[in-house]
Specification:
Layout lengths: L4 H20 L17 E4 L10 E6 L4 E7 L5 E4 L7 E3 L6 E4 L14 H4 L1 E2 L21 E5 L11 E9 L3 E8 L6 E6 L6 E4 L18 E11 L2 E11 L5 E4 L10 H4 L16 E4 L4 E4 L4 E5 L5 E10 L5 E10 L1
Antiparallel strand pairs: 1-20, 2-3, 2-13, 4-5, 4-12, 6-7, 6-8, 8-9, 9-10, 10-11, 13-14, 15-18, 16-17, 18-19, 19-20
């Protein structure tokens, strides 16, 4: 039986209304392109610099098939939320930095480190959303923190620095800093950036350096980061992959062959926003061979910042010269 004109018109109208309702029910960061089979396998390889230093952070766009920015791990120290309602201050996870909420009320009278050893807090990627290393109060008197600036790529300790946030407004954050053991106080200002969830700042250079690209231009970052082991308790620098916290989601789907990872199981994979879902342990280190071995049977589904779904796996951690810190990987749109 054929459809008449009234029936076709009604169905078109109903479909349009249903689509509008579905879109209205989605939060901004939840809108994704529905997955479907459409991608050829892309292979690529990047370099974080040779180990064990891994001096670079490489920001990568799966949609563009390219690294969109690279920076040295010493280019920035702390990051502020661009959202005026956000209060978290995040440490550079590539340097094993720590922060301590000191008992001092002003930068001028901050003096000793008694309590730092037991009260210091690390920036752990797995706790990024729930538990930043520094969370100043929404209102009230400024608080003073002592930062351990961590280590350079060569293992050099970068020292201690006092930090005091003095003001927050709709356009930016004002704060002061003083190197431990010195008297000179530096005044800083970081402007909020609507194109970036986090504004990264260099205390040494008193500026917002060129690091991560705008949020819409990257999905994952290859970097060292701090992982908190539980048994025994240990904060340890590892090298791996972190997600863009502005909206990227991922899940492991290693229960099937890479060729079988498809659109049908993308949404059923339990996509997670935790930054270290992909993490570091797609490779293991052998003390016998003194080399990393990549497990290419570890497969991941990634919902990128643009809403596309990808399957991803790693195939190597060494470049052609044998230097480590050069992850090779395969991915495809699904």
């Amino acid at each position: 039986m054929s459809e008449n004109g009234n029936t076709r018109s009604f169905r078109r109208t109903a479909a349009a209304v249903l689509a509008a309702l579905v879109l209205a029910a989605c939060h901004k960061d939840e809108i994704a392109v529905a997955p479907f089979e459409r991608g050829e396998i892309t292979t690529d390889q990047i370099s974080m610099g040779p180990g064990p230093g891994y001096a670079y952070q490489v920001w990568y766009s799966l949609e563009r098939h390219e690294a969109t920015a690279t920076n040295h791990i010493t280019d920035w120290d702390i990051a502020f939320e661009s959202d005026p309602e956000g209060r978290g201050i995040y440490l550079n996870e590539a340097r094993a930095m720590y922060a301590w909420h000191s008992p001092f009320e002003t930068l001028e009278n901050a003096a000793d480190t008694a309590g730092f050893g037991t009260g210091k807090r690390v920036e752990a990627a797995a706790r990024f959303f729930e538990d930043p290393a520094i969370l100043p109060p929404a209102a009230g008197a400024p608080e003073v923190y002592l930062l351990d600036l961590g280590f350079s790529d060569t293992g050099q300790a970068l020292g201690l620095c006092w930090l005091e946030v003095t003001d927050r407004d709709d356009t930016g954050i004002s704060f002061r800093s003083r190197l431990f053991g010195e008297s000179q106080i530096s005044t800083h200002r970081a402007e909020r950036d609507p194109a970036r969830m986090l504004v990264r700042f260099s205390l040494r250079d008193d500026r917002v350096p060129e690091t991560a690209p705008p949020d819409g231009e990257w999905d994952i970052v290859f970097t060292k980061y701090t992982f908190s082991f539980e048994d025994p308790p240990l904060d340890y620098l590892v090298s791996g992959v972190l997600l863009n916290p502005a909206g990227v989601r991922a899940a492991e789907v290693s229960d099937r062959n890479f060729g079988d990872v498809s659109a049908e199981n993308a949404e059923a994979a339990g996509l997670d926003r935790r930054k270290d879902v992909i993490g570091y342990d797609w490779k293991t280190f052998s003390f016998d061979s003194n080399r990393f071995t990549v497990d290419s049977d570890r497969h991941f589904v990634v919902r990128g910042i643009g809403g596309l779904y990808f399957k991803l796996r790693f195939t190597d951690f060494y470049d052609d010269s044998g230097a480590s810190g050069a992850p090779a990987f395969e991915f495809a749109v699904i």
